[in-house]
Amino acid sequence: MTEPSAPSITGYHAHIYFDASTLAQAQALCEEAARRFALSMGRVHQRPVGPHPDWSCQLAFDTPLFGEVIPWLALHRAGLVVFIHPLTGDDLRDHRDHAIWMGAVRPLKLSIFSGEPEVAEQ
To answer: Which residues form a coiled coil (predicted)?
Structure first.
């Protein structure tokens, strides 16, 4: 019996979560990551955006950088929650089934991707 083929991963997003008390820390972390690695730093959102329950900043990077960016974030996040997911073209599965968490697992608002309940636990 053959296994179904896994989806192709075209890149990753790492979402750095923060609040008013850790805004400067999160911004500095994201800016340093953008300086060190060939990745794109998104806006520093001071409100929940999309499925994310907290304020966040997105770091987008290509698959070959995973082995550099993720260990660096693990060592430098200093208590910030980091949510990482692959990009396969299936947003719901990428955020729900393929998620990687550093720190506390936070409830995502997966209903934006499908008929999921308004807030689904990870």
So the answer is: none
Q: Are 69 and 84 in contact (CB under 8 A)?
A: no
How far apart (Å, rounded) are the C-alpha atoms in residues 69 and 71? 6
pTM assigned to the model: 0.89
* Domain assignment present for 118: no
Question: For residue 80, is it within any domain?
Answer: yes
Given phi > 0 = left and psi -120 to 50 = alpha, else beta, which region is 98?
alpha
First and final CA of the chain: distance in angstroms?
Answer: 31
- CATH number of the structural domain spanning residue 46: 3.30.70.1240
pLDDT in tens, 28-80: 999 999 999 999 999 999 999 999 999 999 999 999 999 999 999 999 999 99
